[in-house]
Amino acid sequence: GYYKNAKLLFLLTFPKTYPHESPKVVSRYELYHPNIDTTGPVCLNILRLGWTPVLCLNAIIYGLINLLMEPNIDEPLNKEAANTLKNNLPQFISNCEKCIKKLKLIQ
């Protein structure tokens, strides 16, 4: 994926109504990613449209991994990152690498 070997940290907040209401997922870093807002919120489809009480933490983690490997450019929170991914893959990869280095996410 675009963040290979990076150590990423996400905060999951579970509402009192969990599992009937989905948790919120926020990146602890300002990642360059189409589905992660620059302020941290993550747009993960299963947390919005596909949430049901039978889903568990594993589904969220696998959803995050999949989102990092295959960003969804059709529903971006970061439109600039989505446009770059769609129109200029080498630049998108370069921007991800710069983000990782800037945040010192690889040790």
TrEMBL record:
SMART domains: UBCc (SM00212)
Top-rank taxon, per record: Eukaryota
GO MF term list: ATP binding; transferase activity
Residues of the active site: C43 (glycyl thioester intermediate)
Keywords: ATP-binding, Nucleotide-binding, Transferase, Ubl conjugation pathway
Domain UBC core: 1-105
Xref: InterPro entries: UBC, UBQ-conjugating_AS, UBQ-conjugating_enzyme/RWD
One Pfam family per UniProt: UQ_con
Family of the protein in this entry: Belongs to the ubiquitin-conjugating enzyme family.
PANTHER family reported for this sequence: UBIQUITIN-CONJUGATING ENZYME E2
Protein name: UBC core domain-containing protein
